[in-house]
Amino acid sequence: MNEELQCCRCNHKWIPRIEDRPKNCPACKSPRWDKPPVSVRKACKAHAEVKKALAKGILTKQPCVVCGSLKSIAHHEDYDKPLDVVWYCQSHHRLRHSELGDSLMENDGSVIVHNVPDDLWRETKATAILAGISVSQYVINALREAVEKK
To answer: Could you give the angle at which helices 135-149 and 90-100 cross, rounded to 10 degrees?
Structure first.
C-alpha cells in the first residue's frame, strides 16, 4: 500500500495510485513538490557571489541560452552551487522558474509575477512543438548546447 505524500509547496496531501514517485503535485502541478522552497537568504547569498565573481572576472556574462539575447541574467539551478549558473533573458528566466514551479523573488523578498510575454511564449512553444518536444525539453536542449559550446 502506498504511503501518504505531502507537497512542500502547497501542503496538499494525497495517496498516489501507483508506487512510482510522482512527477508533479496533483494540486499545484509543481515538479519540485518534494523539495522545500529555497530561502530568500540563500538565494540572495548566491546572487551576491555571482556579482562578486563578475566584478573579479571569475565569471563572464553570457547571452541567453535560449534566444541569444545579450540582456541576460544568471539563473541558479542549485543555490548551494552559487557560481554554477545558466544565463537567461528576463522572459526565459521567468519561464524556467515557471516550469520548475518556483516563485521568483527580488532581494527584498517580493515575488515577481510569472508573466511571460504572449509572443515569447508562443514562439518558444511553437519551436518546441515543431521539434516534437515539450517546452521544458526545448529549454533543457538549449542548456546542453550552451554547455557544449563552452
So the answer is: 120
